[in-house]
C-alpha cells in the first residue's frame, strides 16, 4: 500500500523523517561531491569489459548520498519506499500506483514471470537476448519460444506475433537488445503491440535507454503516460547511473498490472543505501549527460579501431558492442582472459561473435593491445 509522506511525518516526526527519507540535494551531499576522489581500477586487477557496467561508476553526488545513508544502515528502509516511488513516478509523468521497485531489474523479471507465466502459457522472446526471463519462465513450467533476430538484428515482430496467438503469452523485448546492442523501431513495436491478442502481455526492457540516442526510429515507451493494459516498461539504475552492484530496478505499467505483480515481490526488497543514491542519481542530469558522452566517444573510437583491423561489429546503440571475430567465441574469450582482460560470455546463437563492454579509454587501449597479440588477429587483418 502506498503510504503518504504526510502520514509518515505525523508518525515519526519531521526531523527523523528527513534523516530516513534522505531527501536530495543536501548540504552534506554537495560538500562531499566537491572532495570526491577519482576512482581507479585496482592495480593488477583484470580489465572488466564483460558485464555492460558503467566503467566510471556512480557520480560524485550519488556516492555522497550513499555515504550519508550508511549512518542509517542499522534501520529497515521501508519508510523510504514511498519517497523513491513518488520521485520515479514524477520523473516519468505517471502515478505512484504505476511504479513497482525491484532488487535490480532481474527481480522485476522474476515477478513478471510469476504473475503472467506458468503451465499452459508461453514466453515469446528474441534469439539471442537477455536470458534471465527465460530461466524464470522455464522454472514456472512455461513453454519458451525463441525467434531469431532479423538480418538487421531487430526483433522479428512478425515471427513473434505468429507465436503469441497460439496460447496465452508473455512477450519479452529488450530494446536496445542485449547482447546485440541493436534497436527495434518504435513504430514497429507499436504496431506489434496493437495486433497482439488480449491474452498476451509485453515487457519492454529499456535498461540501455540512455545510450541509444541518435536514430529517430528509437523512442522510449516512457515518452508518454503508460496506459495500455498489456504493456510493462522496465528500467534499471545499473547502467548509466553506475549502480549495478547496489541492485535497483523498476517497472512502470497500469495500476492493474502492477497489482498483479506486487504479491510476488520480496518483502523489503530494496536496500536503504541505494534508495537515496537513486534519488541523487536521477536528478544528477549533468553526470548522466557526461556518462553518455564518454560512452559515445569510446564507442566511436572502438568502431574506428575495428575498421582499421577489417573487423565488422554490429552497429551499437548501447554501452557495449557485439563483434564478429571470425573465430570461435570461446577461443577469443579465453585469449583475453589469459591476458587479464575479461569480455562477455559466449552466445550460442552467434558462435563467432564476442560481446565487449565499453570501458574507459585506457581500458579500451588494453583491449586492442590484447587483440593484436592473438594469432587470429593477424589472420583477420589480412582478409
Characterise the protein shown here.
This protein is α/β, with parallel strands linked by helices and about 375 residues long. The protein folds into two domains: about 80-285, Type I PLP-dependent aspartate aminotransferase-like (Major domain) (Aspartate Aminotransferase, domain 2), CATH 3.40.640; about 285-380, Alpha-Beta Complex (Aspartate Aminotransferase, domain 1). It has helices spanning about 5-10, 15-20, 25-35, 60-70, 80-90, 105-115, 130-140, 155-165, 185-195, 255-260, 275-285, 285-310, 330-340, 360-375, 375-380; strands at about 45-50, 100, 120-125, 145-150, 170-175, 200-205, 230-235, 250, 310-315, 320-325, 340-345, 355. Strand 5 (about 170-175), helix 9 (about 185-195) and strand 6 form a beta-alpha-beta unit. The longest helix has 24 residues, at about 285-310. The chain is globular. About 45% of the residues are buried.
General form: globular
> How much is the average pLDDT?
89
Order of helices and strands: HHHEHHEHEHEHEHEEEHHHEEHEEHH
Percentage of residues assigned to helices: 40-55%
CATH topology of the largest domain: Aspartate Aminotransferase, domain 2
Amino acid at each position: 500500500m502506498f503510504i503518504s509522506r504526510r502520514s509518515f511525518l505525523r508518525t515519526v516526526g519531521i526531523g527523523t523523517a528527513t534523516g530516513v527519507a534522505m531527501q536530495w540535494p543536501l548540504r552534506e551531499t554537495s560538500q562531499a561531491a566537491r572532495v570526491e576522489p577519482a576512482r581507479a581500477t585496482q592495480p593488477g586487477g583484470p580489465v572488466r569489459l564483460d558485464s555492460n557496467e558503467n566503467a566510471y561508476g556512480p557520480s560524485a553526488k550519488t556516492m555522497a548520498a550513499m555515504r550519508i545513508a550508511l549512518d542509517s544502515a542499522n534501520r529497515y528502509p521501508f519508510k523510504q519506499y514511498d519517497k523513491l516511488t513518488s520521485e520515479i513516478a514524477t520523473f516519468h509523468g505517471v502515478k505512484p500506483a504505476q511504479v513497482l521497485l525491484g532488487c535490480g531489474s532481474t527481480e522485476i523479471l522474476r515477478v513478471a514471470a510469476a504473475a503472467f507465466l506458468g503451465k499452459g502459457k508461453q514466453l515469446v522472446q528474441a534469439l539471442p537476448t537477455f536470458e534471465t526471463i527465460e530461466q524464470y519462465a522455464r522454472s514456472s513450467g512455461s513453454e519458451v519460444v525463441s525467434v531469431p533476430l532479423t538480418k538487421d538484428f531487430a526483433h522479428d515482430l512478425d515471427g513473434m506475433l505468429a507465436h503469441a496467438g497460439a496460447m496465452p503469452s508473455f512477450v519479452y523485448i529488450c530494446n536496445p537488445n542485449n547482447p546485440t546492442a541493436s534497436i527495434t523501431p518504435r513504430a514497429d513495436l507499436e504496431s506489434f503491440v496493437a495486433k497482439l491478442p488480449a491474452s498476451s502481455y509485453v515487457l519492454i526492457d529499456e535498461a540501455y535507454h540512455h545510450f541509444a540516442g541518435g536514430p529517430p526510429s528509437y523512442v522510449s515507451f516512457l515518452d508518454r503516460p503508460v496506459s495500455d493494459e498489456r504493456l510493462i516498461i522496465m528500467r534499471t539504475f545499473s547502467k548509466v547511473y553506475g549502480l549495478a552492484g547496489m541492485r535497483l530496478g523498476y517497472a512502470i505499467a497500469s495500476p492493474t498490472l502492477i497489482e498483479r505483480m506486487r504479491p510476488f515481490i520480496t518483502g523489503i526488497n530494496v536496500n536503504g543505501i541505494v534508495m537515496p543514491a537513486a534519488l541523487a542519481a536521477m536528478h544528477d542530469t549533468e553526470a548522466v549527460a557526461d556518462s553518455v558522452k564518454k560512452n559515445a566517444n569510446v564507442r566511436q573510437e572502438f568502431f574506428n579501431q575495428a575498421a582499421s583491423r577489417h573487423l565488422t561489429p554490429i552497429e551499437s546503440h548501447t554501452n557495449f558492442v557485439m563483434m564478429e571475430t571470425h573465430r570461435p567465441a570461446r577461443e577469443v574469450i579465453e585469449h583475453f582472459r589469459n591476458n587479464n582482460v575479461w569480455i562477455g560470455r559466449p552466445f550460442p546463437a552467434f558462435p563467432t561473435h564476442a560481446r565487449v563492454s565499453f570501458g574507459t579509454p585506457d581500458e579500451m587501449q588494453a583491449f586492442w593491445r590484447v587483440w593484436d597479440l592473438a594469432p587470429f588477429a593477424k589472420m583477420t587483418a589480412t582478409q
